[in-house]
């Protein structure tokens, strides 16, 4: 027997395999909130496994269609979801990365050992020029993570000047000799990565001092207007945020990061499988991913204490699902398959980011290709788009939209010792003038009947898409027809000032109102 608990409806139980959960919501279209930054739909690509090599870079001599060595199929797919920003070169890799290894003639670049990720050889064939070419091809802004853990402020300063100087100094001339006349656009720079861990095992007090030292030589000016991002906390560790915000202040940094990954088990030693998981593991995964809301609330409360003007942004610049690697693959390459569960996790997090849009001004899923919760998986010349990719595509209308309050109380569903909301949702006014409503049904079995009071919004037409599948671990297989992709949503009906939605189990729905 399964029970559903809701604050407004009490507890009810049934024996049937599936049922319909009913709920109501009220949209306040006349009370617009902050902008939902397009940057919350950002990507993260680290030199890790096949994330860069094979996933993005195949070389100019490859038989795989490419433009200056960068895969055409991957570029086209990422352009289609309007990737706004991409973070590079790490991750843990960033705090060992020497930027000079990755410039100049490729056949003369040194080969290094990638100590963090499987001991694989790092050829440096993909360096600064190649990264910016990739970002420009997909139409994304660049977010650099600079080496604080094992480098110096001079290394940082010289890299930024090499990339951005418009003058006749030696670094600008060197960039031109390497094939780039005009400066690169560098809108975001992260000063260190996970400095509490792989970025140097620092205390927050020590990192605060290191950050202050590095940013003093950052020389933020017209040539280098980049947002300065401080290395932030691991998940719920608000002490890190508190110390850094107190010791650095809102005049020396423009944003601070936080990292939080979803593990089905909550145990880093045995994280759980990407496929073949149980119904209980589905609910455990949803439980852990929904903690993002609490984590953001707590960090924002600390930031508000030190920065009541809300100058400093909160960047969730690593997030996503993290499972045990696929059998037979290098444990250091973090290759995992991607199912409908991942798409539901992604959409649930999007709705949480929207809720905190006033502070959360960027998020970067880990990672773009072939690593962790990837948009794309490749195998030689073959490529497949994952369910997570399609969740991103469905939410494109929310980029730079205006948040609209949506009052809703989701009944709880219980499985084992987990009680989670049956769904989450968000609403916004898009740049095209339409009002968009996104609903993520977090249950495995139960349809959702949601009645939305539209208030002052006069809607004449509704249309949308739904992403779901019969199996909770359904995936798109390499070389086969896609089975998990959006289709036209037929479960929406306008009736006077209300919108009735019939949301299938384990699904993502986005509708637009005109």
TrEMBL record:
Say yes or no: keyword Hydrolase present: yes
Catalytic activity annotation: Hydrolysis of terminal non-reducing alpha-L-arabinofuranoside residues in alpha-L-arabinosides
Which range is the signal sequence, renumbered to this chain? 1-18
Q: Which domain of life is it from?
A: Bacteria
* Residue ranges occupied by any Alpha-L-arabinofuranosidase C-terminal domain in the UniProt entry: 317-507
Instruction: State which Enzyme Commission number(s) the record gives.
Output: 3.2.1.55
Q: Which UniProt keywords apply?
A: Carbohydrate metabolism, Glycosidase, Hydrolase, Signal
Q: What class of enzyme is it?
A: hydrolase
Keyword Transmembrane found = no
To which protein family does this belong?
Belongs to the glycosyl hydrolase 51 family.
According to the record's subunit comment, the protein's assembly and interactions are: Homohexamer; trimer of dimers.
Q: What is this protein called?
A: non-reducing end alpha-L-arabinofuranosidase
Q: Which organism is it from?
A: Steroidobacter gossypii
């Amino acid at each position: 027997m399964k029970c559903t608990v809701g604050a407004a409806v009490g507890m009810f139980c049934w024996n049937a395999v599936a049922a319909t959960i009913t709920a109501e919501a009220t949209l306040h279209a006349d009370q617009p909130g902050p902008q939902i930054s397009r940057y919350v739909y950002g990507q993260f690509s680290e030199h890790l496994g096949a994330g860069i090599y094979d996933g993005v870079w195949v070389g100019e001599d490859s038989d795989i269609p490419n433009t200056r060595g960068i895969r055409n199929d991957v570029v086209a797919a990422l352009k289609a979801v309007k990737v706004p920003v991409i973070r590079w070169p790490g991750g843990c890799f960033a705090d060992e990365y020497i930027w000079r290894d990755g410039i100049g003639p490729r056949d003369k670049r040194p080969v290094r050992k990638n100590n963090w990720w499987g001991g694989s050889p790092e050829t440096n064939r993909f360096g600064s020029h190649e990264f910016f070419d990739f970002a420009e091809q997909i139409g994304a802004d660049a977010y650099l993570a600079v080496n604080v853990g094992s480098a110096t402020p001079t290394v940082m300063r010289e890299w930024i000047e090499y990339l951005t100087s418009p003058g006749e100094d030696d670094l600008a001339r060197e960039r031109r000799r390497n094939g780039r006349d005009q400066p690169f656009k560098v809108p975001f720079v992260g000063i260190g990565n996970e400095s509490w861990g792989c970025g140097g095992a620092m205390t927050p007090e020590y990192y605060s001092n290191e950050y202050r030292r590095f940013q003093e030589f950052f020389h933020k000016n017209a040539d280098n207007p980049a947002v300065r991002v401080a290395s932030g906390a691991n998940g719920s560790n608000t002490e890190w945020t508190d110390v850094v915000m107190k010791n650095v202040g809102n005049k020396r940094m423009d944003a601070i990061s936080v990292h939080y990954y979803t593990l089905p088990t909550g145990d880093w030693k045995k994280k759980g499988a990407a496929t073949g998981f149980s119904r209980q593991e589905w609910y455990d995964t949803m439980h852990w991913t929904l903690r993002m809301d609490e984590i953001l609330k707590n960090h924002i409360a600390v930031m508000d204490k030190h920065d009541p003007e809300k100058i400093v942004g909160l960047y969730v610049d690593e997030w996503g699902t993290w499972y045990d690697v696929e059998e037979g693959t290098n444990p250091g390459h973090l290759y995992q398959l991607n199912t409908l569960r991942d798409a539901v996790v992604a959409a649930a997090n999007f709705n949480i980011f929207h809720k905190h849009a006033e502070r959360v001004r960027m998020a970067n899923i880990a990672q773009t290709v072939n690593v962790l919760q990837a948009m794309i998986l490749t195998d030689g010349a073959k490529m497949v788009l994952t369910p997570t990719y399609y969740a991103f595509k469905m939410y494109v209308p929310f980029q730079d939209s205006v948040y609209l309050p949506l009052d809703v109380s989701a009944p709880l569903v219980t499985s084992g010792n987990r009680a989670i909301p049956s769904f989450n949702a968000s609403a916004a006014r898009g740049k095209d003038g339409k009002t968009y409503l996104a609903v993520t049904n977090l249950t495995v079995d139960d349809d959702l009947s949601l009645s939305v009071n539209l208030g002052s919004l006069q809607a004449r037409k509704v249309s949308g898409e739904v992403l779901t599948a019969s199996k909770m671990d359904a995936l798109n297989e390499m070389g086969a027809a896609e089975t998990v992709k959006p289709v036209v949503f037929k479960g929406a009906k306008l009736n006077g000032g209300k919108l009735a939605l019939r949301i299938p189990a384990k699904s993502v729905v986005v509708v637009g109102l005109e």
